[in-house]
Write a structure and sequence with these properties.
This protein has 348 residues and is mainly beta. The protein has one helix and 24 strands. It has a single domain, classed as Glycosyl hydrolase domain, family 43 (Tachylectin-2, Chain A), CATH 2.115.10.20. The longest helix has 15 residues. This is Glycoside hydrolase, family 43.
Length: 348
Amino acid sequence: MKKLGFLAAGLFSLFAQAADASEPLFVPVLTVDFPDPFILQNGNEFLAYATNATGDRANVQMARSTNLVDWVQISDGSKLHDAMPTMPDWARSGFTWAPEVLKTDAGFVLHFTARDKRSDLQCLGAAFSANPLGPFVSTAKEPLVCQTDLGGTIDSHAFRDDDGQLYLYYKNDGNNPQFGKPTDIYVQRLTADGLNVTGEAVRLLRNDTPWEAHVIEAPTMVRKDGSYTLFFSANHFGWEPNQRLSPYAVGYATCEGPMGPCTDAPNNPILNSFHDKRAGCLSGPGHQSVFDVGDRSFVSFHAWAATSGCRKFDNKRYMYIAPLLWGDGKPQLGVSLRSPPVQGKRAK
C-alpha cells in the first residue's frame, strides 16, 4: 500500500502541472490506433487493452506503462502481443471490440465483443486467464449475451459493487443498419466467477435526446460516496469527410442503484469535440473507462488523430487519460496527463 500511495501521489503531481495557457487541454498518451481503451492496474504497472489491431494483427492488443504517461505497445519484435490469440468456436476473428478485464479470486476474466458465426451479429463473450497478459481462453460454444432480435449486443462492462456482487452492463446494437432500432443500455447480474450472467436483464437508458442521436453505448458504472454514476458515449463514433468534427461525446446518468433506475444528467455531454485556439483540438472523444489509483480516479478514452489544423489525420484513434474529479457530486474531467517538462520545454 505504501508503493501504491507513492504512485498515486506522483500521478497527481503529473496532472497538477499538466497544462498551461499555451498547451491544449487534452493530449494523447499513446499515438497508435488503440480504440476503446481499458486500463487495469497490475502491481506497479498499468496494462491497457484495446479493440483488435488493424490488419488482423491481434484480437486483443495491449500496451503497458509504469506511470500512465509513457506507454509502449506490447510486442515480440515485430509481432503484437495478443491477449486472446484464439477465438472461441462461436466467434469470427477480426471483429473483437472493447475488451475489459475483471480481476476475480481465481484470476482474470476478459469480457469482449465479437462477431457471432451463426447470426453474423456482434455479441458478447467471456474468457479466462490466470495472467492478465493472457492468453485468455473461452471454451463456450455460444455467446455470453446476444440480443439477436435487437441487432446484437456490444460493449460489455463488469462492475463490482461494495458488497461484492458483480454486474454486467451492455448495449443492444440496434443502430445496426439492418435493424434501425433504438439503442438501450442494459444491466444483468454476473456470477461470482465473472463468466456467466444470471437473472433478468434490466433496461437503464435509451438514446432519447438530440445530442445522443441514433446511439448510446460504452457503459461504465462508478460508485462514489455511496452514489452510482453511469457514464456512456453517444452519437456517431466516426469522423466523416463532411464533418468539421466528430459528433461522438461522453455523458452520464445518475442511478439509484447498480440496477437503476437511472436519469440522464441535464448537463450532458461532459466531454465532446472542440477546436479552440487556447484549448486545442479534440475530435470524437469517447468509449471511456474509469479506474482508480489509490484514492484518485482517472478516465481513459480515445479520440481521432488530428492535424495541427484540427482535420482528420488518418484513420487512427489515440488513447487519452485524464483525472476524474467530482464537484457537488457531479463528475468533471481535469486536463489530461502528459509527460513532464523536458529541458525547459514541455513534451508534446
